[in-house]
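Researcher: I'm preparing a figure for a lab meeting and need a structural model of a single chain. I don't have an experimental structure, so a prediction will have to do for now. The sequence is pasted below. Please return the structure as tokens so I can convert it later.
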Amino acid sequence: MNGDSSECIILNPDDFEDTMNLLRTQYINRNPLCRASRETIEDTYKEPLPTYVKKYLASGVSLGVRDSKTKMLVGVFLNSEYNLEDTSSEPSTNMEELGTVFRVLILLYPSPEVFREIKANRVLEMSILCVHEDYGGQGLARRLTE
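Model: Understood. Here is the structure written out token by token.
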């Protein structure tokens, strides 16, 4: 696939159905973690995945690739952005979210000032990278992550 037959786009909430269709047909059955945990296509209709996908699409930092001829969504890189200055006065009770925060804190433990040292005010959460198997080997994943 050359640059003329595909187009990179910034995904938005209008891309929800196409994104979920790509995840259901390509990601769930091919991702090793999904396969190991015996996740099924039916599981993608249940929370929390639809809510997370909507959040990623609304973030403005998720990318997709559409086939120029068919307009089919053939690749996604779902991301979210966090502002380090935003704080919550209410503690989170979502254990999955707390586990993610804990894993990040462990990584930062040797240098807790790492974000201040590099003057970062936002963090990019990179969540899901998926390319349709019929479009494999054409550099789409590389284009999405560059």
